[in-house]
Amino acid sequence: MADTIIGSKTRVNGVISGRDRLVVAGLVEGQVAMEADVLVEAPGRVEASVRAQGVFVHGTVNGEVAGAAKVEIATDGRMIGDVRTGRILISDGAVFKGRVEMDVTEG
Amino acid sequence: MADRITEIGPASLVKGEIEAQEDVSVFGRVEGIVKSTETVTIEEEGLVDGEIEAANVVVAGVMIGNIRATARVDVLETGVVQGDIATPVMVLLDGGAIKGRLVMDDSAPEPVRVNTTGTRSRPAAGRVTGQPTVSRTAPRPAAQTKSTGATGRATVAARTDVKSRPTASRRYAEEPAPVETSRRDTDLLDGND
């Protein structure tokens, strides 16, 4: 499947949904509902609630993450909001503020 | 990896507003407004239902709604536009389809304004529909007459001008003998319609 890319000089205000992988290098406000992975690249910012298969944070996510099988917050990542996921990885140096709720029935 | 332009993937839907200071390519579907200071391209399988405001617009897919380009619009062989187009330069290739008004206004267009920083500013949306009326309310009648052949709207404006004021063009359409003002007006209307 191809990618949906929000470039570094782009802002989206609304709902992004679909089966493509979503790469955010710019700014997304509103809601993200992907049936694939969401990758937030280093300058990128997501001000939205996120539903996706996997969420990989290098930039900033400000919002609730739910329904994800896996969440990774990299060393250059910044995540503010509650996370509901099967697996979570928070790297050394990453910023995280929020609650984590892990789906114990899945593991 | 760092410099990527915006692409809406073939299996993606964006509902809302996209504002960019870079190229935007739509392979999937956008319902809403797409604004760019650069080029917006609707790829062959892509669809935009809403409005596009950009420097350049290329349509190879389907556009439902109005397009305002400050530089150029290309409708390719596979392109379909259902809506009005306002642009200084227009190319329609064989096979491309347009259903709507085409306004080619060569007066300096207002640049596309985008806001990619996230601070809210809304009034830009109204400016899009307001744009084409600028030519009609142009202060100098001379400019209107010059562009008469370009659009239907300009022709209408010129005719109203003739009716409201006695000018040279009106005088030689009538008999030289001076008649009552009210009667002259009815004569003119009959002659024109």
Polypeptide structure, described:
The complex is a heterodimer of chains A (107) and B (193). With 107 residues, chain A is mainly β. Helices cover 0% and strands 64% of the residues of chain A. Chain A has one domain (3-102). In chain A, strands 1, 2, 3, 4, 5, 6, 7, 8, 9, 10, 11, 12 and 13 form a 13-stranded parallel sheet that branches. Chain B has 193 residues and is α/β, with parallel strands linked by helices. Chain B has 2 domains: 6-134, no CATH class; 141-192, no CATH class. Chain B has 6 helices and 11 strands. In chain B, strands 1, 2, 3, 4, 5, 6, 7, 8, 9, 10 and 11 form an 11-stranded parallel sheet that branches. Mean pLDDT of chain B is 73; it is low at 121-193. The A-B interface holds A 1-23, 25-27, 29-30, 34, 41-42, 45, 47 and B 1-24, 27-28, 32, 114-118. Strand 2 of chain A pairs antiparallel with strand 2 (12-20) of chain B, so a sheet runs across the interface.
Number of helices of chain B: 6
Tally of discrete structural domains of chain A: 1
Describe the largest sheet of chain A. Answer: 13 strands, parallel
Order of helices and strands of chain B: EEEEEEEEEEEHHHHHH
Q: Can you count the helices of chain A?
A: 0
Segments of chain A where pLDDT lies below 50 for 5+ residues? none
Specify the biggest β-sheet of chain B. 11 strands, parallel
- Would you tell me the overall average pLDDT of chain B? 73
What is the global morphology of chain A? globular
> Of all protein chain pairs, which has the greatest interface, and how many residues does each chain bring to it?
A-B, 33 and 32 residues
The shape of chain B is globular
Straight-line distance between termini of chain A: 28 Å
Helical content of chain A stands at: under 10%
Which structural class matches the secondary elements of chain A? mainly beta
- Beta percentage of chain B is 35-45%
Question: Radius of gyration of chain B from the CA trace?
Answer: 22 Å
